[in-house]
Amino acid sequence: MPYELNALIATDELITVVAAELPLARVTRLSHGLALIPMTDELHNALQHPSTAPDYDFKRFPSGFALRIAGWSKAAQIAFAEIDAEHPAGRRAALWYDGRITLGPLTPADGAPLDRILHALGVPAAALPELAAALASLVAAEPPEA
Fold first, then answer.
1. Percentage of the chain with pLDDT > 70?
2. Is the pLDDT of residue 80 over 50?
3. φ and ψ of 100, to 5 deg
């Protein structure tokens, strides 16, 4: 069974702020000044909030979460991405800034969603394959969720 990673991705500084608000968050530092927080079952359940806010067809996006991401994005860009071992370039990704989506939601039909999001977050094009490979390794290392 292929593993999946559904995660928030932003600058290390913003992810540190987000993690301080979310006691269940596990932070993974990445290269190029980025970090991510995987959307674990526990975090997903803790973040559920009755809302009519859209889920943008993500598989693991808590109800009402778009409102939280929009709030965090007022400080800096923040992305939510779905990644799996079979499609390391990403199945779906979106980038928020200044309270709204500024890129996406992207699907494979739009090109490599994860690469486009990482590039928008400041990763140079030449470094995208290396960072995508590191994320694919994270996906493969993630234990299946219960």
1. 88
2. yes
3. -150, 165
